[in-house]
Amino acid sequence: MSKGIIYYRVSTEDQAQNGVSLEQQKNYCLEYAKNHEIEITKLFHDDGVSAKTVNRKGLQELLSYCQKNYKNIDSVIVYKIDRLSRNVKDYATMLMALEELKIKFISATETVDKTPSGKLIGTIMASFAQFDNDVRSERVSSCMLEKIKQGIWCYKAPLGYLNARDSQNTAIISVDRPRAEIIKMAFDKFSTGAYKMEEIRQQMIKAGFKSWKNKELTSQTLFKILTEKFYLGIMTVKGEEYQGTHKPLIDESTFYKCQRLIKTGNKGDNISASRINETFPLRHFILCPNCGRPLTACMSKSKSGKKYPFYRCYNKSCKGLKSISKDKLEGEFISFLKKITPSKEYLDFLRKALIDISKEEMSKYKTNLKNSQSKLVTLQTEKAKLIEMKKKDLLDDDDFKEELDKVKQAISDIQASACDQPRDNKKIFKEIDKIFKVIANLSSTYREATYEEKLKLQCLIFPEKPVFDFSENRTPKLSLILQTKKEL
Questions:
Q1: Distance separating alpha carbons of residues 197 and 195, to the nearest angstrom
Q2: Residue 24 counted as domain residue
Q3: Domain total of the chain
Q4: Using one digit for the tens of pLDDT, what is the confidence trace for 143-195?
Q5: Which parts of 269-370 are beta strand (E)?
Q6: CATH code for position 6
Q7: 278 lies in a domain?
Q8: pTM
Q9: Does residue 244 share a domain with residue 196?
Q10: What is the CA radius of gyration of the chain?
Q11: Whole-number Cα distances in Å, 277 to 37, 159, 213, 280
């Protein structure tokens, strides 16, 4: 009696579509061996693995076993050729390797032998297996691209998001809040120009941020995060951009500020950890009026040993501003904040307008919700009628499925829109009051703010870094709410 070994494999797709289980393949091969008087000495298998590649644990173990025990092996039995490989080149290579070891290759369900015609049949079958695999891959790619065009991300979610499913068991991208908050913090801080990437990375690690598999955040991963448009709501596939339906983590202004800083290397705008000094909040923020480079700052020691803080242009070739005391520069900056602070009348007008808009939005939402609930009742009734008609055989399968899918989609759309509830007016009004209190007291708020708060305020007030020349003819660009002051 000759001796043989068996290899069987199943992918998840096989189990789902064809019902060909590992157990069935094994039993079929064992039955074949019994009928042909082959003694099976060992079995190898791969579970839930594609045949696109030969890098499969079970298959590699089989090939290694054949190399070591070829004198005691007469044949390798598989259920079908595509269990071994869906790639013609791989199939031919493995067949040649078995031939060199004088081991016969047997397909329990197909006619393959070592004769020229048998080899031809085997190669043709492997070709069809590869063709089937290529078609399947192309079909999957086309389906995924259609999903992408609809704004649905089909791949693994980036850090800050999770692959999840909604109440209808539809695949969605949800926000991974703990990671997302830290990522937002990273974008916000980096966009100020006051931090290097390494400082941001250390702050993220300190905040408890972990990469996939609970690994520590690397510089490369942080770079990918800060340049990833997915956080902006944009999906990029094969160089093409598509608008996603997932929730963005950051706004365009913050994202593109970060991109400019990354592209230019910040040109000295980023301050290393050892050089961050909370004594100088305007350092690397105010620009030199002569050369346009950011001002730096340091402490100067007098002959008596007393230290004096001052700002200066770090451009050695600049013939303009050499130095200015901290008190003078920051005093002029605070005076300018007083100057651009809107009047009480303007702020009251704007506050009332925002509150009216919030009330109107909530009123619209309540009206729409009432209409949606009425539509939902109608659709649920329609759904029940369809099911009843199907029970009475008044609808064929295709018509029933088509109509039921329409109703289900309509119900899903209404339920999804109901989730877009605006925030509670009381909370919004509190936030509006808080914001307007800051705007009404810009100079005092800035003076009493912490170093971090000052940096944030500076960036909110000035979309672009201001030049140290707060005169009427060189007014820096201000945020929209402060620009409007002159227009009303």
A1: 7
A2: yes
A3: 3
A4: 677 777 788 888 889 999 998 888 887 788 999 999 999 999 999 999 888 78
A5: 295-301, 307-313, 323-325
A6: 3.40.50.1390
A7: no
A8: 0.40
A9: yes
A10: 35
A11: 85, 32, 36, 6
